[in-house]
Amino acid sequence: MNEVSDSFQLLIESLGLAKKFLSDTLEKSNLNLKIYTHLDADGLSSGAILGKTFFRERIPFQIRVLKQLEKNEIIKLTMEAIDGENFILFSDFGSGQYLELIHYLKSGEVQIPFLIIDHHLPQEVPNKEDPNMEIIHKNGAPWHVNPYFYGIDGSTEISSSGLCYFFSKLINKKNIDLSPIALVGAIGDIQNRGSNYSFTGINSYILKDALEADLVDEVDDLSFSPIKPIHEAIAYSTNINLPGLTGNASTTLKFLKTIGILIEKPDGEIRTLNDLTESEKRDISSKIIEYALKYEIDPNIITQNLIVNRYILKDEIIGSELYELNEFPKLLNSCGRSENASLGIAIGMGDRHIAYQKAQENLVDYRKKISNALNWIQKEGTIKEMEHIQYFYGEDIIPDTMIGTIASILIFDRSGFINKIKPIFACSRRKSEEVYKISARASKEVVEKGINLSEAIREALSLSDLEVLGGGHPPAAGTVVPIDKIELFLKNCDKIIGEQRNNPNDQISK
């Protein structure tokens, strides 16, 4: 076997031990199974996979979705577990809080069994080469499963939903039909970053399952949104930047008409990418390349970003938000980040009626909020720069549940609006608490030069004398910071990012 296959087999063995630990514990004790998961697309996909799995096995369970697994939540769920005699399963978080979980769930007379299935860097581990990784792995078996234990990068090669999928398939091979939901979670965590937005690493094994089960089709297609009106899809694409067209839907409409593309269907509705013939798609592609040449844009850059791998869910309705894998996570994210996480779980588990209809309505409102937030944030002076980082406050425009989404959109934006060579720290004040939710993002190019946001946030918290949890991945991490400490925290982040930039050999290797 090659290196990836060897690592994969070790990961599967770890999941097998976790499965046995769970089944043996539930069999010996009359415990309630409680699942805690994150509110983003990967977390909701993870929860849906686990929920569907246990439902099929007729194992009673409850799913609770959290904004984040913070210390106060750990204390709260500990008290609930003591009263209710629970077995707790954490998905899409837990590794970054495993010391707290041990402290509260396995301290003194309190012995609450729990299982972590997570893809984030473990607590107090700065990077995947840290020698403590092996110690954490050894001491955490069988209740702590993490791809980093086997040299698998959890930020690019497999997400939490992928781990839950393989865990599910070990319980019952028939759960191969859940492979598309695992891919939805992977895309939600932007793990389709291979050539033409393909899957790499362990995610490619999940794709193989989905293809062999005839659940997904893989096709080459234009990189525009398949469900927006075609002129808007091109104008507001984040994949290509065309002077005069990007950001201007009316000009793009005229451009399409000049090359003979019919805009309306017979019933008067505006056509989408899904409505175009292959011939029309080729015409659009060639004309966009010609257009780019007029502005002396490297045609190779346009071509690389114009054609992508598109993954189609064969059992979904053509044109729906669930038909194309790249759109599905957006629906789940809109549910989780607008306090409607239960809708996302239900859709992931297969509900295509009431939950889906409500989620569609919710998505319209969510997109308006995203658009308003992006329009507001482009006002001069909203984004402020330090020497090594940039940051902004969401004020009363961007709630803490959406701040991470906005940060991600900004860091992947191709319009040149923000400074891509600096990580961005987005800060949103929580209404019910005297804290800021922090979501940090860095571009792939910056991370490849040695920047590790997970480590930077943890070090900044320590320098700021804050005993709160934080971390994530090198390109994406977060925490919460008291209001009176926010300026100090950002100052320390700027300092540490500067040190990482000057000492790239000390950071995570890519």
Overall geometry: globular
Number of domains: 3
Under CATH, the topology of the largest domain can be stated as inorganic pyrophosphatase (n-terminal core)
Question: What distance lies between the first and last C-alpha atoms, to the nearest angstrom?
Answer: 23 Å
Question: Strand count, sense and closure of the main sheet?
Answer: 6 strands, mixed
Percent of residues in beta strands: 5-15%
Question: Tally of extended strands?
Answer: 13
Rounded to an integer in angstroms, the radius of gyration calculated over CA atoms is 23 Å
From the helix content, strand content and strand pairing, which structural class follows? Answer: alpha/beta
CATH architecture of the largest domain: Alpha-Beta Complex
Set down the secondary structure blueprint.
Layout: H1 3-28, E1 32-38, H2 41-56, E2 61-66, H3 71-84, E3 86-91, H4 98-105, E4 114-117, H5 132-140, E5 144-145, H6 160-171, H7 179-188, H8 203-212, E6 216-222, H9 230-235, H10 249-258, H11 278-294, H12 299-306, E7 307-313, H13 328-336, H14 341-348, H15 354-377, E8 384-385, E9 390-393, H16 403-412, E10 424-429, E11 435-441, H17 444-448, H18 453-463, E12 470-472, E13 476-482, H19 486-502
Parallel strand pairs: 1-2, 1-3, 3-4, 4-5, 9-10
Antiparallel strand pairs: 6-7, 8-9, 10-11, 11-13, 12-13
